[in-house]
Design brief:
two-stranded antiparallel sheet, about 290 residues, mainly alpha, single chain, 4 strands
């Protein structure tokens, strides 16, 4: 049995002969979740301020230096470890954001940053954002773009898909949603109207519908937009990054037309006018004396 390629570096025979793919291609041989656990042990027992030899890291894990090559290479690809040649490996500041995040949003953003770091993964995120991620399609990406053989491509695809599943970057339909905020739009509306238990009678369900109809029109509209993004086919979603950490979402159908876009532009102009008028009204309010 041939020895497994270190850090899943495909040999030249696995690569296409074209100039673009002739270079050695590297992908993480380990999934991100297991690598966080691997580096956490280094962080907790050996520290994070100094470079540590591969021998010390292997000894810590009860392994041989040769057997952790894939771990060390994967750690670098995910930005968890940095290598200083001739000295050793150091736990990165980026790892600390993953391991000790301030909140769920920071952890999510750090996960996405790790997964987008390998060149091979970066293109996959561009190709599949807001689309279903088919394992066979990912496998074919490695074969067509980098000349992988079938066995290596299957392994690389499985690790990529497992990473997305482990960190909740696929929705219930298998759509890649890394561009969405950590807490989906509409969640507050859904919280306001509790979903009844399975044994709830029809009268309670009707009561919920009546309660929902009493919500302000703006809230009911937001909820419908959220449901259409999650459930309906033929929709596309574009995240719109605003000032600070704010984010808006633009959901539109496949058959949107130029006339539709003109209407959207007028709606946005209306929002701008309302903001200006409200600001003007606030400025005209009498100021409290100090």
């Amino acid at each position: 049995m041939s020895e497994e390629k270190t850090a899943s570096e495909t040999s030249q025979e696995d690569l296409a002969v074209s100039k673009e793919t002739r270079r050695r291609a590297v992908y993480p041989a380990k999934d991100l979740k297991s690598m966080i656990e691997f580096v956490a042990k280094i962080y907790n027992q050996l520290g994070h301020t100094a470079h540590i030899s591969n021998v010390a890291i292997a000894t810590l894990h009860g392994l041989s230096p040769e057997s952790i090559k894939q771990h060390l290479s994967s750690g670098q690809l995910y930005k968890l470890l940095e290598l200083k040649h001739g000295t050793g490996y150091k736990v990165t500041d980026h790892f600390q954001k993953l391991y000790l995040p301030r909140d769920e949003n920071e952890k999510r953003l750090s996960v996405i940053e790790s997964l987008k770091n390998p060149d091979m993964y970066r293109q996959l995120f561009k190709d599949y954002e807001y689309h279903v991620v088919p394992p066979d399609g990912v496998k074919n990406h490695f074969i067509r773009s980098f000349g992988f053989k079938e066995e290596a491509a299957v392994k690389a695809a499985q690790i990529f898909v497992d990473n997305l599943k482990d960190f909740g970057l696929l929705d219930q339909r298998g759509v890649l949603t890394s561009g969405l905020p950590a807490k989906p739009i509409g969640a507050t509306v859904q919280d306001a109207v509790p979903v009844p238990d399975s044994d709830t009678n029809d009268s309670n369900r009707n009561g919920q519908e009546n309660n929902e109809s009493q919500l302000p029109a703006r809230q009911r509209f937001d909820k419908l937009i959220f449901q259409s993004e999650i459930d309906a086919a033929g929709k596309k979603t574009i995240p719109i990054h605003l000032i600070g950490d704010k984010q808006a979402m633009f959901v539109y159908p496949d058959d949107i037309t130029e006339d539709d876009i003109e209407l959207v532009k007028h709606q946005v102009e209306g929002i701008l006018l309302r903001i200006r008028l409200e600001a003007k009204k606030r400025d005209q309010l009498p100021k409290e004396s100090t």
